[in-house]
Amino acid sequence: MRAERGAREWGAAVTVVLFVAAHFLLRPLLVSWTMAPDLLAGGILLASLHARPGTAAGVGFAAGLLEGAVALEAMGALAAIFALAGYGAARSRELFFADSPLFLPVYVFLGVWALRLAEQVATGSTPGWTGWVLEAPASAAITTVLVVVADRAVTPRP
Amino acid sequence: MASAGVDGTGRGRGDLATATLLVALGVVIEVLAPSARLELAYALRATVLRPVLAAQGEVARRSRLSARLGQLEAERDSLARQLMVARQAEQENAWMRALLGLGLRPADSLVAVEVEPGRVPGGEDQTFLLRVGTGDGVTAPTGVFTVRGLVGVVRASTAHASRGQFWTHPDFRVSVRTASGQASGIVRAGEDGGQPAMILDGAPYQTDISPGTVLYTSGMGGLYPAGIPVGTVRAVSAVESGWEKSYRIEPAVRPEQVDIAFVWRKPSRP
After folding, report:
1. Which end of chain A has the smaller Cβ count within 10 Å, N or C?
2. Tell me, what's the pLDDT at A76?
3. In which band, very low, low, confident or very high, does the pLDDT at B105 lie, cut at 50, 70 and 90?
């Protein structure tokens, strides 16, 4: 039982690292497509699902710092926002009914959407209303599919 | 990754303290001086992000080279011809200055450098990083350009890195003039049909600048050397009655076309 839990935790950690690494590796492609999946937000939310709130905040902080260093914009603001998002997401998962099959998709979709909008506000980019109500939700939906598939793969449920 | 399990009050407080500390640290980083933030970004890019950025750079370089090989050969031939003419003009200039009893002009120089764009998701290219700094004689603010024209301006420098803004940045301004010198104005970033474009403000009302006219840096203000192409006039965009005109400008260089650029090492004034 304990070994199984340890393997699940390791699997989740590796998935988070893969999401973050893929985000930075594919960044030149992803930034030019407005509806591209936000793998960084997906990685932070995956961490929030499996880690303690403090750890999730640390993952968010590190991810924000790296994103700011690549974007050359709002490094501190991104680190603060992502740390807050990691902590908030990890705390809020306890408020939902985690046994519901809809929990994970809704949780990831809303989280990615909110995080993407916060990121755009922090970096001062102005995507317009289509960006807020069309591109960000579309990106969140694609990210949700990827995160749910990855989460099911590493932490299979009965 | 440690599972949350059931939170004890102590662990919950510890998590809250950690998150608060990290958020505060983020705020501190955000309010740091631009050169300190650049130093931190440079350190991360040179360590943790180095493999990723190197892989991205290599892929981009290969795709650019294969697409532009013919164009690069033509550019090289054209530059060789221009160099021959320029050498002759330089000799004549030195000879005429000697005849007039003028001393030698303070020497400026250029540093060739790779431009690493920083782009936010959903946004345009507005900032870039250069791996040269005050240690290489580059001091902010100073102009960045290619053979084709103006790229942007260096805004902050550390010993070995600089952060710059492309002309697409809202804060960007450059003083320009036509080749004849009859019209001048200030170029800023704008939009044309949803695409980033340049706007020329403050052009004289009485002087018409015809479409197709090339605008060059005037050299005023000392940020950019004079004579660098900035863009080509497309059409009048607005008229302040009896006062001044604004024009839409097609930029000489778009940020996504830039890989290698020159940074202006300004001459040291006595």
Report:
1. C
2. 92
3. low
Q: Which of B3, B32, B122 sits opposite A131 (nearest CB)?
A: B122
Taking CA atoms, what residue in B is nearest to A89?
Answer: B19
Question: B9, B13, B15: which to substitute to probe chain A, counting the most A Cβ within 10 Å?
Answer: B15
- Pick the residue of B28, B29, B32 with the most A CBs within 10 A to test the interface with A by mutation: B29
Q: What is the mean pLDDT of chain B?
A: 85
Give tens-digit pLDDT for B126-182: 889 898 998 888 888 999 999 889 999 999 988 888 999 999 988 899 999 998 888
Task: Please report the ipTM that was assigned to this predicted complex.
Answer: 0.87
SS3 sequence of chain B: CCCCCCCCHHHHHHHHHHHHHHHHHHHHHHCCCHHHHHHHHHHHHHCCCHHHHHHHHHHHHHHHHHHHHHHHHHHHHHHHHHHHHHHHHHHHHHHHHHHHCCCCCCCCEEEEEEEEEECCCCCCCCEEEECCCHHHCCCCCEEEECCCCEEEEEEEECCCCEEEEECCCCCCEEEEEECCCCCEEEEEEEEECCEEEEEEEEEECCCCCCCCCEEEECCCCCCCCCCCEEEEEEEEEEEECCCEEEEEEEECCCHHHCCEEEEEECCCCC
* Å between A7 CA and nearest CA of chain B: 10
Contacts of A95 (CB under 8 A, 6+ apart): none
